[in-house]
Design goal:
There is one protein chain. The protein is 75% helix and 0% strand. The chain is mainly α and 211 residues long. It starts with 8 loop residues before the first helix and ends with a helix. The chain is elongated, with a radius of gyration of 19 Å. The N terminus is likely disordered. It comes from Loigolactobacillus jiayinensis. This is TetR/AcrR family transcriptional regulator.
Length: 211
């Protein structure tokens, strides 16, 4: 598969030059792993949804773990870094804490929504899969210089609480966004006003990190 930069995993799979059966397996796995979890999804279920045989799955992926990594590696190695490299330098154009927080919340939440199934799989596998955990945190570690270059100066200039370090700020923002994201996934029948909800999240973050 090609390793070009992309911003949506499902669209990327659709655009790749690969056998039709392989594409069907990847997309079926994306759906089923997100809905039921990697451990609870069998290759028989994947084969049925992809309309292929189990032999076809193992023709392209030696193991079920290889299939999982075929989904997650492009996300960790291309999708997240590409968004990181495009996103972080833009923070410098905002001068106040409310505008910085609004940009981060709105931009990051749209990214999460655009890749909802992939994010569900990644976040659940981070807790149990050593290979995924290692690859993801290697990417996070390599991102630290960019955060220190762009995010830290902007936040300090905007006026965050002096006792907070970058990790605390990130945990506050990510915690709020992911809680809201999972709330919608777990309770899809509850009506939401996304614009209003994100405004409330921004206000909560600002209260938590401002001086």
């Amino acid at each position: 598969m090609q390793t070009t930069i992309f911003d949506n995993y499902r669209k990327w799979v659709q655009d790749q030059t690969m056998p039709k059966g392989k594409r069907a397996v990847l997309l079926a796995s994306l759906d089923l792993f997100a809905q039921h979890g990697y451990a609870s999804t069998s290759t028989a279920q994947i084969a049925q949804q992809a309309a292929v045989s189990q032999a076809t799955i193992f023709k392209y992926f030696k193991t079920k773990q290889d299939l999982l990594l075929a989904i997650l590696q492009p996300i960790i190695e291309n999708l997240i870094p590409q968004y990181r490299d495009d996103f972080l330098p833009k923070i410098n154009q905002f001068a106040t804490l409310p505008t910085i927080v609004h940009f981060i919340v709105s931009d990051r939440y749209q990214f999460i929504k655009a890749n909802a199934d992939a994010m569900i799989i990644l976040l659940t596998e981070l807790l149990t899969n050593d290979t995924v955990h290692h690859q993801f945190f290697a990417m996070i570690q390599s991102s630290q210089p960019l955060f220190m270059q762009h995010v830290v100066p902007a936040l300090k200039k905007a006026g965050i609480h002096a006792d907070l370090d970058l990790g605390a700020v990130i945990r506050t923002i990510v915690g709020q966004l992911m809680t809201y994201f999972f709330q919608q996934r777990l309770m899809p029948n509850i009506p939401v006003d996304e614009a209003h909800d994100l405004q409330l999240i921004e206000a909560q973050i600002i209260r938590a990190i401002e001086k």
